[in-house]
Amino acid sequence: MRDTRVELKNPITAAVLAFLIPGAGHWYQGRRFKATIYSVCILTLFVWGMILGNWQPVYSQLVYRTRAESAQMEKATPPTRFSFGYAAQFFSGLPALPALVQEARFRNEEANLNILETEILSDFSGIVREQTESGESAKTVSGQMILSPVNAAGSRDVTGTLTVAADDGTTIEYGLGGYVELGRQIFGSPRREIRCGIISKNGAELATEGSVQGTVARSFLNWFQAPRDSHEMDRLHGDLSRKFDIASVFTWIAGLLNLLAIWDAADGPAYGYGDEKSKPDDDDDEEEESPKKT
Amino acid sequence: MDLTILTHAIPLTAIICLVYSTSRFELPERILRSAVIMFGKTIGFLGLLYAFLLYLSR
Q1: Structural domain total, chain B
Q2: Rg (CA), chain A
Q3: Which of A17, A250, A287, B3 has the greatest CB tally within 10 Å of its CB?
Q4: Do A246 and B5 touch (CB under 8 A)?
């Protein structure tokens, strides 16, 4: 039986609020001290995990490897499996719910990998391939890419430039053209894959074929908490090492702790008010213990 | 052992103890006392475990 001194108001409303924003259910019930502890502790832990993990520990679906080189380049929606970590993260409430929105966007996206609709102005990292007399040469580059569709409404034909720094300190400007291939718009990686042709180098037309293959920036709203593949997970583990695992665990724990808060909002404190006469064989923390709720 | 990674355990333990105790009781003093005791016990246990593992790895 609940302690009558604890005013729960409408427990269902309080539980829903506690789920959506940690501490909000208790604030609604007028239990401000507990609301502050839940809110500060749980949200701090969740945000701390997000910062440690470069804002990428939360995702609801892991995309299977597909026949394409990368799941980003798969036109049909690739098969996915549920991320069990999300079962815990989910209970953090609103901070983790964008993952479900991104999952729906990912599933419903009609991926058109061969159309560039708007101009790309982004940093680029990847590989430049050129045909030379001695065969194909490939070198890793990073630089600035400007790429536009030939038709303003969007087209497969593109035009633009890629400016990179050469080994000797000079700048090389590649003229880009031909057909473009782009990674899916919604995907859980801040980098979007891209491929297109090279038509000139420092203003001189290339006598043979060339191409660039690499990644450009993807907008935050298109990658945040979106489904990703094992390539992206490998990259994250490579960049962040154990920090990514710790970040994931923090977000899991934040969700699980909020379960305690939801329960408290719906049913009151588990042991009692806190001033009950103690029993020697009860509770877990000290000699002065509390009985179950009366 | 990477101590930078290990130090994350201290505030994490504090948060877990505080939230757990908050879900057990209603009185602020009781919550804080319970959380402090639980934190001390947990950190003490982790410290002993760390010392034992450090001893084994020497």
Answers
A1: 1
A2: 27
A3: A250
A4: yes
